[in-house]
TrEMBL record:
<dbReference type="GO" id="GO:0016747">
    <property type="term" value="F:acyltransferase activity, transferring groups other than amino-acyl groups"/>
</dbReference>
<dbReference type="InterPro" id="IPR016181">
    <property type="entry name" value="Acyl_CoA_acyltransferase"/>
</dbReference>
<dbReference type="Pfam" id="PF00583">
    <property type="entry name" value="Acetyltransf_1"/>
</dbReference>
<dbReference type="InterPro" id="IPR000182">
    <property type="entry name" value="GNAT_dom"/>
</dbReference>
<keyword id="KW-0012">Acyltransferase</keyword>
<keyword id="KW-0808">Transferase</keyword>
<protein>
    <submittedName>
        <fullName>GNAT family N-acetyltransferase</fullName>
    </submittedName>
</protein>
<dbReference type="InterPro" id="IPR050832">
    <property type="entry name" value="Bact_Acetyltransf"/>
</dbReference>
<feature type="domain" description="N-acetyltransferase">
    <location>
        <begin position="4"/>
        <end position="181"/>
    </location>
</feature>
Length: 181
């Protein structure tokens, strides 16, 4: 394989992107990989309309796609957005890191994280922040090996908002992790 290509998503990518993300996080196809949420949540992880909303927001997110070639299938993605925290620090939020279940374990996740960190540094961000659904010990360990540490803050799970999935448990919440740059 040649070096993978990382490029911003366009509106033309949103159907394929949503299908890849949903297949990696939910349902039986997700169980082929190790990063799934299928035991915690059912339903969708995202949809083309929600992804379009992210791209069209006043402070838009950037969705980066990983492909083997510019016109090849989507192998992975990550969503990133710059923001300022309550202390006015310039931060970058990393979200929706996804690698196709059959391509996990090949370094693609780390490659996407590295690209987010590179772009965040170039934009003057002092840290990258993310949230991880609690109860996902392997995923938390993956991020900690890459320098992300729990901040002690938690965020509630958006119960009742089915566009984020159908919870199988009533104790879901997100842990906030951060890595200084």
């Amino acid at each position: 394989m040649t070096s993978p290509v990382i490029m911003p998503a366009t509106r033309a990518d949103l159907d394929d992107l949503a299908a890849m993300v949903n297949g990696a996080y939910r349902g039986e196809t997700a169980r082929r990989g190790w990063t799934h949420e299928a035991d915690l949540l059912g339903g969708q992880r995202t949809d083309p309309a929600s992804l379009a909303d992210e791209l069209d927001a006043p402070d838009p997110s950037t969705v980066l796609l990983l492909r083997e070639a510019a016109d090849g299938p989507i192998l992975g993605c990550v969503m990133t957005q710059r923001f300022r925290d309550e202390a006015e620090r310039p931060l970058c939020h990393l979200a929706m890191l996804t690698v196709h279940p059959e391509r996990q374990g090949q370094g693609f996740g780390a490659l996407l994280i590295g690209e987010v960190e590179r772009r965040a540094r170039a934009a003057g961000c002092v840290a990258v922040e993310m949230t991880v659904l609690h109860g996902r010990a392997e995923l938390l360990a993956f991020y900690q090996r890459r320098g992300y540490a729990p901040t002690g803050r938690i965020k509630p799970f958006p119960y009742g908002e089915t566009r984020f999935g159908l919870p199988h448990r009533d104790d879901l919440h997100f842990l906030v992790l951060e890595k200084p740059l």
